[in-house]
Amino acid sequence: MPAKIPATVVTGFLGSGKTTLIRHLLANANGRRIALIINEFGDLGVDGDILKGCGDETCSEDDIMELSNGCICCTVAEDFVPTMQKLLDRPEPPDHIVIETSGLALPQPLVRAFNWPEISTKVTVDGVVTVVDGKAVTEGRFAHNEAAVDAQRALDDNLDHETPLSELFEDQIACADMIVVNKSDLLGEESSTALADKLEAEARQGVHVIRAAHGELPVEVLLGQGIGSEADMEARHEVHHHHHHDDDDDHHHDHDHDEFESFVVTRPEITDPQAYAEQVADVIRAHDILRLKGFAAVQGKPMRLTLQAVGPRIDTYFDRPLDPQEPRDTRLVVIGQAGLDRAAIAAALA
Fold first, then answer.
1. CA angle in degrees (0–180, nearest 5) for 213-214-220
2. What pairing do the DSSP bridges indicate for beta strands 291-297 and 329-337?
3. Model pTM?
4. Model confidence over 78-95: pLDDT tens digits?
5. pLDDT tens for each residue of 139-188
6. C-alpha angle with apex 20: 216 to 45, nearest 5 degrees?
7. Is the domain of 14 the same as that of 138?
8. Following CA atoms 163, 72, 12, 15 in sequence, which dihedral angle do they give, to the nearest 10 degrees?
């Protein structure tokens, strides 16, 4: 059976920076064919902004699908699932699907929809990314312009939940696999750190909270989380159930990734893959590493071992025979926020 196509759900209030984050992602997609499903609702200029940042081989106009019938979590059966089927049934389906939800959407019903039989065998939720307007939240608001959010609510005739913004915010945090504190450049270091710590305490264990400016994050941090969120709905329970039915189902900036760093650790071949995976997980937890990926030679084995880690969750498998000319060593790429103790991590992995 072909591998499922990964889909990333990007949620967050109007003005938090979802569109900017997605536009930056497209500009740095490194050859991935990405399809977009856009649900930001109302006369907000969002669609035009994304189209301007698109229009190449990475994401053609045919790869952009707009859901303009209202809040995505209220139109799952009528709008979202049929749209997904169209994407998945193409002769050349995309490598990755990015879904920008309305800021008013409860993310849980959307993630649950990936279990619908029509699409469940073809696509999986790579991860849910919740974008937070850091400056607004530190000032006691949930969006830069809450009046605009209320206007957005009034425009949507199909909206069937009157959820207060505070409760919507809690649901977006509860469902997140990654929380992006955007506009962190507008905060002092102390405020930015305090907000990130607070959100990490409120989120599920293992959810990374990342600070960003202008939505600029490395693609390898956003994509490839491999969570399979739709299979883990109990852990990301809705804090509040507000649907009226019981359906279960900017400006240009230089790209600057100084807040992140990556480096390679090389060590000799390993002897026990399971024990080494446990060792890697311990190192990730101790040093708050975001991603770790690479290959290892295993003593006495002719096959190359692949290791991929998102947080402390490690996936390992043998992918191909080692070429006789290849060195029998282990090479791991470590990705994290700036300030990693490279020497300590390298020593612990060795």
1. 80
2. antiparallel
3. 0.70
4. 567 788 888 888 888 889
5. 877 666 566 555 555 554 444 445 567 778 888 898 899 999 998 888 88
6. 170
7. yes
8. -100
Are 152 and 289 within one domain?
no
Distance, in Å, from the CA atom of 293 to the CA atom of 296, rounded to the nearest integer, reads: 10
Residues 94 and 220 in one domain: yes
Compute the 3-state secondary structure of the chain and give helix, strand, coil in percent, each to the nearest 5: 35, 25, 40
In angstroms, how far is CA 63 from the centroid of its own chain? 19
Whether residue 291 contacts residue 225, with contact meaning beta carbons closer than 8 Å, is answered with: no
Q: How many domains does the chain have?
A: 2
Q: Tell how strand 313-321 and strand 303-310 pair up.
A: antiparallel
Both tokens of 323, joined, read 């070429």
Residue of 211, 215, 200 lying closest to 260 (CA atoms): 211
Domain range for 300: 260-349
Q: Is residue 198 in a domain?
A: yes
The Cα–Cα gap between 147 and 85 comes to 35
At 256-265, the pLDDT tens digits run 434 667 788 9
CB atoms < 10 A from the CB of 84, how many? 25
Token couple for 269: 């071949």
Residue 40 dihedral angles phi and psi, to the nearest 5°: -60, 125
Tell me how many degrees the CA angle 265-268-273 measures, rounded to the nearest 5: 90
Band (pLDDT 50/70/90 cuts) for residue 247 is very low
How far is Cα 128 from Cα 27, in angstroms, rounded to an integer? Answer: 20
Helix, strand, or coil (residue 187):
coil
Q: Strand, coil or helix: what is 334? A: strand
